[in-house]
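Let us work through a complete example step by step.
Step 1: write down the sequence.
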Amino acid sequence: MMNSRHKLTIAATILSLTFLVSCSSSNSDAELTSTDGNERINEIALFGDSPATLSPSIDAPVTLVEFADYQCPPCEMVSEEMLEMAQTYPDDLSVVIRNFPLSEIHPNALSAAKAAEAARAQGEFRDMYKSLFEGQEVWSDLTADQAEEIFEGYALDLGLDVDRFRSDFASASTSALIESDMADGSELGVGGTPTLFLDGERVNLTSIDELAVIVDAAVQRSRNGTK
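Step 2: predict the structure and record it as tokens.
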């Protein structure tokens, strides 16, 4: 029987990325939804205490926050855009990644989040984020032990101290950090991934290409002082 991951991938291919679907804990496909355009959200919950970023700084004028699941195919589809925008606007845009593993439908998502955080502890979050999504099809259907071996291979490829990586991966503080991200996401109404917030407002997307357009517009407004 075809699993949910393959169904989502095939649907996305057929639609040629026209519509962005999200993984959800109810195992159903849904477009990203939006809050009221005038409604602001809790910024403490949005950023947490010490968020992971794909950008050089958390203090850029424009912020893009993603609640992500590394085993979610739509998150993989968005990841290239997230990395590219972080590189394109290093001084204008903070690209923040929060963990929201949907373990009910993605059994290796929590381990992947731990791998990302263990790499972040050694200053290599961005490259581990990239590696996890580039290898998603390889590790998603493996057993937990096999997936963890893949993640350790990524750590080795990135030149990390693998013993420290293993220790951080298994640490209570890493688990607590991920649980905190998930609690913040739940407080903000996140129920599926990817869920995106641009400058504190939840984004409603119908295509991946639209994301770059609206982020560019926000950056230009910020540069022009019309934000």
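Step 3: interpret the result. The chain has ten helices and eight strands.
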